[in-house]
Amino acid sequence: MENLMTTPIEGFSKLSKADKINWIAQQYTQHPKETIAILKQYWNADEKLQNLHDEFIENTITNFYLPLGIAPNFLINNKLYAIPMAIEESSVVAAASKAAKFWQTRGGFKTTILGTEKVGQVHFMYHGDSEKLTKFFKLVKPRLINSVAPIVKNMEKRGGGIKNIELRDKTSDLDDYFQLHCTFETLDAMGANFINSCLEGFAQSLKEEALGYEKFTDREKDIEIVMSILSNYIPNCVVKAEVSCPVSELKAHHGITAEDFAKKIVRAVNIAKVEPYRAVTHNKGIMNGIDAVVLATGNDFRAIEAGAHAYASKDGRYTSLTHASIENGIFKFWIEIPLALGTVGGLTTLHPLVKLALEILQNPTAKELMQIVAVAGLAQNFGAVRSLVTTGIQQGHMKMHLLNILNQLGATEEEKISLVDYFKKHTASHSAVVLAFEELRNKK
Ligand code: MEV
Prior knowledge:
Layout (H helix, E strand, L loop, with lengths): L16 H12 L3 H10 L5 H8 L13 E9 L2 E8 L5 H13 L5 E4 L4 E8 L4 H18 L1 H9 L3 E9 L7 E9 L6 H20 L6 H4 L2 E8 L6 E9 L11 H17 L1 H21 L4 H12 L9 E6 L2 E9 L13 H9 L5 H24 L3 H17 L3 H10 L7 H14 L1
Antiparallel strand pairs: 1-2, 3-8, 4-6, 4-7, 5-6, 8-10, 9-10
The protein binds (R)-mevalonate.
């Protein structure tokens, strides 16, 4: 690439959208006119709607499209769902739909909420006698809780709020380090703003109360608040989703019996349990399903990812989030995963597509959404492991990727139809697609 001369910029955020676009196009791209045309092509014609999206973040220059697909036929606790998924990876929606259909005729998915507790911490340094700190904390704990009463009022009215505040001595890990470990019930809200506001309130009161506590020395009075922030590690905000059926009802697959198929799945899951290299990829496949629904419903997929992977290592070794067993002729496949999700607040009412996705899901509560999302993860994992232990992943993957390759090659609609048909009977690899495409073109 030609070396473009770029210069730093002051006050970029204060420029108009048009000026930002001009600047980025001129400074960082080879063909500014084309750049501007591409960016504008993705603007929404409805100015009000575009403005809404512009204001989600700072320095917006355009929209970034991801496909929103539907995976139908999910029978969850005897209710049928069509699940909206936002994702770029070609095979994910197809795999989810296939797994949903498979289990729909075998009793569907069953789910249980194992807990909904959220966590936040005030991290602070205290230089002094830890017993004195414990006594002080007992005394001021009700005052800390009282200090955030205005923030908590509405949440409490609906049945949520602060569950507990605990003082934790972490000095064996780090000199003078203590924390307030706080737990919350945030109902249908993901709760990040609520939790962080409470924590900042606790921190301020803690500091003020310490300053006025006569039994502390001057040094002890000087509690240093380091930070107050929710934790994305939520081992008690967990949902379980499962499928099960007699082994005999698992269809025979690609020349293997239903029994062998069940055994192969259990073996593959057991490998992911003991082998972290495999577990990471196994869990990545689960997150393909999870993130796609999390994104479509306007939730924070980074928080979900961080929490899920931390949970996968909760016993000291990174392991599979799903489990499989065969007992007394019954095949069982299940997942346990922490999910902090919201169906109110955040983007849920702001983003028209998020609102629509939630409507398609029958406007679930946060608990219901936890169940749907966990099912999407389990279905995805079943689909991936099924392919891996039978045909291999590339067959299905390349079939779905075929259109991407053909689009890259500039195939016409007619050529696409002909080549999709051809690859129903032939193995699709990148080079095989290029070759078949060239042959088809040359024939004309
Ligand atoms: C690809 O996005 C996901 C898989 O690698 C998951 C797996 O290996 O289980 C197919």
